[in-house]
Design a protein that fits this description.
241 residues; three-stranded mixed sheet; OB fold (Dihydrolipoamide Acetyltransferase, E2P); alpha+beta; five-stranded mixed β-barrel
């Protein structure tokens, strides 16, 4: 009887210890998940949204007009991920110091047209607008703008956990792991930007049953205007400029 009681006590203690260890592991995992979420850009709170109205010399939804400008290229690629917006330096072809640009990291890049062979630095192109952490935004503003936006009244934690969201008339959120066609323009040495945001972005319709549209001539749908075209038509417009 005494042996039986001892066994019951040992089993009970073992069970309690196992439950205690399991609880610690669960708590630790929850804490780690919370930290990961806090470090995830998508979990940052939006402090405010600035919508800029860009001026256009022509209708940017007209593909032929876009492609007639200098340094235009057509590519297809899969989006790996989108980073935090940043301010790009002034170059011969770019001088917008008021609005940051979001870096888009690509993979499986195919260059369909362009005057020269191009090298895209770090497989990254940019699009105007996006989310920038307030602490990074503050480093690019003068005292007047810092006070105007109320950033001088925020503490360090608030500056590091909130973002300013910049949007334009044709802003478009790209999906990771999805393939697109892009019209891009060269704005610096190996630096390229999507032309007029969503106006230069096309979803690829690989489900089209038209026999004339194949792997070498993909049907495209512009994400803003919903106009339908294909890679051959865009390439021809680019050559004819």
């Amino acid at each position: 009887m005494k042996l039986k009681n001892k066994l019951i006590i040992i089993l009970s203690v073992t069970l309690i210890i196992s439950i205690f260890i399991s609880t610690i592991i669960i708590i630790k995992n929850n804490v780690n998940n919370s930290i990961a979420k806090a470090n995830d850009k998508s979990e940052l709170k939006v402090y405010d949204t600035i919508i800029s109205e860009e001026s256009y010399a022509f209708d940017p939804t007209d593909f032929s007009k876009i492609l007639k400008e200098k340094n235009r290229y057509i590519i297809t690629a899969k989006v790996e991920k989108c980073g935090e917006a940043t301010f790009l330096p002034k170059t011969e072809y770019y001088n917008n110091y008021h609005t940051p640009c979001t870096p888009i990291i690509l993979k499986d890049i195919k260059i369909l047209s362009g005057k020269d062979n191009i090298t895209i630095e770090k497989n990254t192109i940019y699009t105007l607008g996006g989310d920038i952490k307030l602490s990074n935004l503050k480093n690019n503003l003068d005292e007047t703008d810092i006070k105007r936006l109320g950033l001088d009244k925020l503490n360090k934690t608030e500056m590091n956990t909130q973002v300013m969201r910049y949007k334009t008339t044709y802003s478009y959120d790209l999906e990771p792991n999805k393939e697109y066609a892009f019209i891009i323009g060269k704005i610096g040495n190996n630096i390229y930007k999507i032309v007029d945001e969503g106006c230069g972005i096309f979803e690829i319709n690989k489900q089209n049953t038209n026999s004339k549209i194949n792997n070498n001539n993909l049907q495209l749908v512009n994400v803003v205007s919903k106009k339908i075209t294909n890679t051959d038509e865009l390439t021809k417009m680019s050559i004819e400029k």
